[in-house]
Specification:
By secondary structure, the chain is an alpha/beta fold. It has one domain: Transcription Regulator spoIIAA, CATH 3.30.750.24. Helix content is 46%, strand content 25%. Strands 1-2-3-4-5 form a five-stranded mixed β-sheet, with helices on both faces. α1 links the parallel β2 and β3. α1 packs parallel to α2.
């Protein structure tokens, strides 16, 4: 996974399919717990499949960020993964952007 410090309070992470997904989410969760002031943009263009464990990790990350009043954007979802979010109703839980640039813009424009 590539984790980039985009600004003082925004981290951009590029996720990959399992088995790397689990390790990547653990590393990202550690960052969020160490830095409660951070917003997260997840580039999911490299994700072709999500299982229930992956979704649980995304939900846990979302909860940690929301508890700190910070934002999470999921970006670059392919059609199959987007369909999974639609079928499960998670399209109403998470916030999405077409690409990383749009995700970053959304976080910066929206009020705290």
């Amino acid at each position: 996974m590539s984790i980039q410090e985009w600004s003082d309070n925004i981290v951009v992470a590029e996720l990959q399919d399992d088995p790397a997904f689990s390790d990547d989410m653990t590393a990202l969760s550690d960052i969020v717990h160490e830095r409660p002031d951070v917003h997260v943009v997840l580039n999911m263009a490299g994700i072709d499949h999500l299982n229930s464990s992956n979704i649980a990790k995304l939900l846990k990350l979302r909860k940690a960020l929301i508890n700190n009043q910070h934002k999470l954007r999921l970006c670059g979802l392919n059609t199959h993964v987007w369909g999974l979010f639609l079928v499960t109703g998670l399209d109403k839980v998470f916030e999405f952007a077409d690409n990383v640039a749009m995700g970053l813009a959304g976080i910066q424009i929206e009020p705290e």
